[in-house]
Amino acid sequence: MAARTAVRPGQLSAWFTTPAILLGLLFTLGPIVVITSFSFMSQPEAGSGVVMEFSLASYQHFLFQEDFYGQMYFDPRYLNAFGLSLWQAVGTTALSVGIGFPVSIWMATKPPKTQNMLVLLVTIPFWTNLLVRTYAWILFFSGDGTANTVLSWFGIEPQQLLYNSWSTLVALVYTFVPFAILPMYSALAGFDFRLAEAAYDLGAKKLDVVRKVLWPAVSGGVLSAVALCFVPAFGSYIQPVLLGGGKVLMVGNLIADQYGSARNWPFGAALSVIILVLTLVGAWALLAWAKRSAQTVSLAV
Amino acid sequence: MITDAKGRYFVSQKADRRKELLVNQACKTFTSAEGEPVKALDDVTLSIRLGEFFVMLGPSGCGKTTLLRSIAGLEHLDSGEIYLQDMALSGLPPHRRPVNTVFQSYALFPHLSVWENVAFGLKMDKLPKDKIAERVSEMLALVQLSDVGGRKPSQLSGGQQQRVALARALAKSPQVLLLDEPLSALDLKLRRGMQGELKRIQHQTGITFVFVTHDQEEALSLGDRIAVFENGRPAQVGTPEEIYRHPVNRFVADFIGDTNFITADVESEAGKSRIAIGGQRFDVEAPAGQTVTVAIRPENIAVGAPGPGKIDGKLAELTYMGTDLRCSVELPDGQALRVRISPPFPQLTPGGPVGIGIPADAIAVVAD
Amino acid sequence: MNKIPARLRLNHFPGVGPIGVFCLIFLYFPMAIVVAYSFNGGNQALAWQGFSLRWYDRVFHDAAIISATRMSLEIAAIATVASVVLAVLYVLSMDRLNRAGNAVSGAILAAPIVVPEVVLGVATLSFIRMIGMTPGFWPMVLAHTCFCFPFAMMNIRARYQSLNPAYFESAADLGATGSAVTWRITLPLLTPGIVSGALLAFVVSMDDYMISTFLASAGTTTLPIYIFGLIRKGVNPSVNVVATLLLLMAIAVTVATSFLSRRQQGKPA
Asked: What is this model's ipTM?
């Protein structure tokens, strides 16, 4: 006997999902399919775009260059950009989660009204224009900016604080601290701190309580925080360009350059596919872990 | 009415379906969270007489709410039909059925005022404005809420919200009003008051009420007739008194009120089937040679000084409850009976011998 | 609670207070500097020469900034309306899809959140070229609609799922047809979710530099694209002003959505 679906008044027929799915197919899946196929095509002799001719040259180009005599040699230039992106992303994630964890505990142990206020204060930067947030640090680090003014009070000569990987890192951490705090806080906000008291009654030490009672409750939130910081930090563009001043070559600006000044679309496409695959594998692994350990991990705030 | 061998309605002639809401061989299977099929309605056949206050009683998951929702059209039956007089309801969407529902959560529209809530169904029927206004005022007066029409539901107390839900459902003068545990969110005192109110409104309007509850006291006090549901089907349908005094099985006897269950062997004596309890014999309607379970209500047992014509027992426990005295007595064969004694209370000593009197009509043989 | 000494209590963590306060200062201090310097009267972005609104006046009369702002507002407005309409239709019909359809469409539609922005930008540009369109206004609007959709959808879906299904059932029970339930009950009850979803979609669209920059043509410079160009040249008094205004918008939107979500939580079922 075919089970008929429950009566759900006011719901629309499945056909009404079509416009959204069509848009998603056209402007999300479509571009990903196109860029994947572009990565296997050839660069035109002149100008931008691609030539419809199968080629693995772009992937080869990632690791090897052709020298003057037509010999292939290993060139770590692009691998270094990946390495730098990786380090920046790891550093950003570690610092953001490292700062965010105590902050989220601080927030979660406040009275409810204060908690709402603090969530609001953390969310405002989250929704503030990324350029504005990055610009604020340019102002801070620039030649006659606040940082140098403070240094001058201690008799230190003005320094070139901008345009290096440290200022980039500061801006990245600044961008992603709210991404780290919010998921960890929401995991902690549901935590019943009386559970911990019960554990004390049973004679547990504080470290034990943190490890065995608090950690299982927040580990999903911490992992969400790691994912939410790492993925966008790895592909970041604005901070390395504006605060790194072109000296900091990360995957994001490397890709953008291929579509801009370098005019090598197939190579840019290949780089995109590599970073996309890494991201999707990471996201998949995370969700698989979450499912196995019955944790709630979210990839969106 | 024509019934088949199993006692079910046999739907063949239109004439049989007058003046009743008939559920015929309704089946509905859900898939549980674990993927197991669960029979919510297992071949249910029920006749609800128009104009009566009909209560569907049972524990949670017994199918009573599923049946109510199927009558409203909010659930599709896997098989079976529902007729309201000559009208087959089964194929109609909820908005075309001449029945209305009072939901457990009331489901008052939070963005509409009380007045607009009550008017909602009438507006859907495209009634003229003055007719709507007249009817809404009438309904608010019926539930004694004429002065709160302008408020939002969230500004009302639980009891008031309940009345608005009732007024809203009654506004369209449905042929049948379905009530899904409408009083369960109210505290005991309000609940008692609302029970009386519902009874009054049912009398006043003459509308058929089909009322779902898991509270046996509520069922007994409200219902003209009660259907006790067990595992997706009605185990017994009858007046409160029938169900209380002659439960058909152990489940019904146990679910309604407090009951002692005694097992005894049926013997044949002078052509009659009899059982013996503590040496006393009782006529029963059961074939000889069987072991049967009989139900005896605690309040039907008399306890006093031992004497002729009484069963000799021992008083095990005694608790004074104010309006009555509760005790536990032990029969000679070791089976215990709970007894409830109304004033005037006899002199009793815990641990001492007592005489137990069981009237012949207090015994009901129940199936397991 | 009093039985446990403070040093053992789990809601007492020494050191988290100072870190929390430091973190809030870290989050707001740089922006406070921007806001302060937006009222600077001097010609230099960073040399304080007294309070003045002259740069506000400048910005409000700067034709390039005004036209870039107008372009951003136009795109954001269309993308917001489109993504909210699509999201409402999707939320009201997604339960009718089978399991697989639901999972696949959900993954495709949420992808813009997970895929790195640069990749989405170059991929969309590649796609546009592939299907024979040229960068410009409409490709931008479509791309913005696409990446605004998840933000609108998540808010609207959360609101829809929080509603007691008995509202819709009782409307139908009272005689409302399917479309009457949708118009008179579902949409009014969804409104807080629609408003906060729309606000966030609007902010996300106004915020976007990365994807727009690949899809913009000479005539479709948005505000972020224009500011990016200014910032690249270094600090600039006009940027201080624009940044302050954008910060104000973020504050307004965040406060509004938080107010809406708290109000819908506090409402009895």
From this structure: 0.84
